[in-house]
Batch of 4 targets.
Target 1
Amino acid sequence: MKNLIFIFSIAVLSFNSKAGVLILEGKFQNKNVFIQNAFGANGVGFCATEIKVNGKITTDEVNSSAFEIDLTALNIKPGQKVVIEISHKSDCVPVVLNPEVLKPRPTFEVVSMNINSSGILKWTAKNESGPLPYVVEQFKWNKWVYVGEVQGIGNPDNHDYSFQIATHSGENKFRVKQVGLGATPKVSSPVIINSGTDKPSFMITKNNKAIQYTCETSFEVYDAFGTVVKKGFGKETDIDNLSKGKYYLCYDNQVSEFEKRK
């Protein structure tokens, strides 16, 4: 019989099988792995024959239609790499019912967070259980807006991170968050600073082809259906190619309406 090869890979989780071995890789998240174990093709005995975790044979009972790989009993630390090898007969393959339990979850805790005089957001975090990116967000336009990412290291030790921010006029709020696959995002408390940045105003040019601001600003333009049609940073927004109608302009920390007339 020809060898069967199946490979599945996502995030830090690797899941592959070849003749006689099914391999599951990821990080321990305080969860056990459950296996659906069919009979062999000839109807004699079960498909899985032996389990190894990080190279060591376990005592998990494989002679049943379903069984649990008890990772909690192996003194594996949260966030530690796990490689599970499931030996099986060549004419069948066991089914891993919950491979997602080895994918990283957002478990970080912020030890400290501040913004220095150079406009750099700095934070120290601990208790990370996997290398997830930190998403940096700024609150403006009545919502939290994505401004960038910093890759997390992914273990429980204290780690220092930094990100250069840009402020708008008045009060500014920033936070960081992590999102694991299928998990609820985990967010930090916001850090707040007040900026002396000038508050811009805007005007539409007489030829109705551009929006001009009194100073440089971030901006987004939405159509009547809430679709972003323009986005950028500067002292002008080109609207020449927009159709006639009502639009919403987000700039600095303001939200306004305008109408494209021609």
Target 2
Amino acid sequence: MHTDSISAPGTGDISRLAVSVSRLLPGNGDQVTAIAGLSLHRRDAITEPTHCLYGLGIGIAVQGCKQAMIGDEILACAPGQSMVACVDLPVISRVSQASVDRPFLGMMLKFESAMVMQVAERMHLSQRMKDNAFRPITVQALDDAVLDALGRLISLLEEPHLLEVLAPLIKEEIVARLLSGAHAPQLLHVIAAGSPSQHIAKTVAWLKLNFRQALRMDDLAAQAHMSPSTFRQHFRTVTGMSPLQYQKQLRLQAARQLMLNQKVDASSAGGLVGYESASQFSREYSRLFGEPPQRDIKRMRL
């Protein structure tokens, strides 16, 4: 097991950002903001491990601590650190430090891959990277300039008349600074033209949209311009799991959201996400989430 631990820079700006997030999100929960891709998060207590999907973007904790588990690796993100995901990846996430008096406060900003590529092109960055050191999620010390830009982005939520004009510019600034900092090698892996990481990222994006379809490994490998064995090896390197396991997690998480948010019954939810057998759906759901569908949804609602 590996845990990232990185010393934090000065906390003055982070404390001010924590005040802003707390004011915008005074109660426990998650808030999708008026800025595309930006969400705020608050937890008043330590949470149980939860299966979720991280997408291309940056997440920071401005107060408290959060962990993301990928296989046997644990990545911890505390104030003064930044967590960047380069591909859509199922992870097990938990808030590891929070209380009513000092809640966990965090923010996540997702990027469009096309925008990252455009910024990299304007910066004339190398489009060829070696793939032997690729990691889909990395934690690094939070750059002061990135922190400043995130603070300015948050402040736009209280200036809605400027939001439409300035938010895209600040998001591009954040991407440019990430491409100039410690996270750059991993981001460049995914956008490097013709690299195995880019081909796998495209496959992951396709699977995210088409997870209900039956998988044909040879077809996926051909789309990625690889042999089936090479494709499986690179897919596991990038995501930490096989294509079939990845599809299974996407299906089960989608079914969970259908039952939780749209009150779809378990048998219907399984069929809607691509399962032909209700018993297989129930078995695999229980294996991933720890309880059968109906019991799990009842617990979450409580």
Target 3
Amino acid sequence: MSVTEQELDEFRTEVSAWMRDNKPADPGFLLPQSFMEVGDEQQLEFLREWQHKVWSAGYLGMAWPKQYGGGGVSPAFQAVADREMRRHGVPICFNVIGLGWAGPLINDIGTEPEKAKYLKGILSGEDVWCQGFSEPDHGSDLGNVQTRAMRDGDEYVINGQKIWTTMGNFAKYMILLARTNPDTQRKYDGLSYFLSPMHVPGIETRPIRKITGEYGFTETFFTDARIAADCLMGEEGQGWKIAMQTLQYERGAEAGAAGGLAMVRVTVDDMIEQLRDVNRDGEPVLSDPVVRDQLVQAIMEEKALALGDRRTAVGALNTDYPGSLPLSRKLRISEMTRRMRQLAINLQGADGALYVGDADARQGGFWQRAYFNSFSATIGGGTSQVQANIVAEHILGLPK
């Protein structure tokens, strides 16, 4: 559907005014910097209320079908709304696995009953989703999943274990990859994909404490857990194909996400601002030529990432290595984010050793916490090492 610049400009003004008037006040407790740090009920309920408010105002799921709770308008409007959320520094829309992975998948290949059952609850924040892919002994070898799902009449019986299940303890549903046929010649052919409920006997979650001292991930255990046979998405044996499509959404290579902020976004400009009153050997650290060179490099990389996203939408600019930008996006962004946050701490000097809770920590230890949290993105959705292999094999054509 065609949208004019005037329409987008008018919409931008509307969204900006709404965000300004409705941005919540500081709740008086630490808010997650991303959806991977929702650790307690207090944070969850605050973020659930905020997401519901954004959706009710019409600024979330704008391109999803109206009959399932969406707005039914051009994705261009959602892009404007997302930019205004970042600009105004509002809280995250926490239900990211639903908004960005499960929802787009259901929208694209789900049945009408699946769309009617799941999509609206994802947008409203009522139904939290988690992901059951990684396993303790097979984290970077997804095709070797060992969790079993054996058919028993009108049910599947699930046994196994998943790890790094973001918000597993709060989730109502899980996108689950499990082995329905252990005897296939190719390991990929024995996998199936489920939209599994979490609140059934035999499913247990245990929170994992992270280096920040916070929570957000869980281990998930399945012990003779029974789920309805109609939780199967597609057909038995199609799990690998559907999982790969899910990972395309997760890694930012496919459109269709409902929008909203997945994490608190900080820029090189934000880093520079917090360094303005930092001195080294009696001189401003920002006057040091080596530091200035490091900052310029960071600015260039940040700008290249933004321009790369715009270039992706122009087919004529992607003929040399088709798919290279979307397939490498997750690796480029997560690693640049980690390096930038590490630089912000290094340039604080001795203050860089302080943390959240230390009275003299700069910005309350924001950058230290952000740096530790940045490792989640270099692991989740495929580690940086796995992402580098994907670029090597699927873009550059190098051997395994």
Target 4
Amino acid sequence: MIGRLNHVAIAVPDLAAAAASYKDTLGATVSAPEPIPAHGVTVVFVTLPNTKIELVHPLGEKSPIAGFLEKNPAGGIHHICYEVADILAARDQLKAKGMRVLGDGEPRIGAHGKPILFLHPKDMQGALVEIEQA
């Protein structure tokens, strides 16, 4: 069921500074900031040869990232994302094995324009896991 690692998301308190660090210090290819109001975030993607880093910053007062940054003011790893071939089949298999899908259990469109779901961290060794249809 699980496919390749799509990205590692890092919540950052200063998106411009974080993007500059990857671009200017590490020499990475960095996208322009992309606001995603439906998820309450602004993202920047750092493209690596084998995966991506998603820099995530709060957008709006109800952003889920704002709460994360309150607890972790310097930022930190927020979630990891794995690809799946069929998100509905993956969801159903995971739920049948006792995994909790966050929200209403229905896929939403993520930053890449593809369906996504999040799995409860308590079911994934403390890590918030996103699955994305490839």
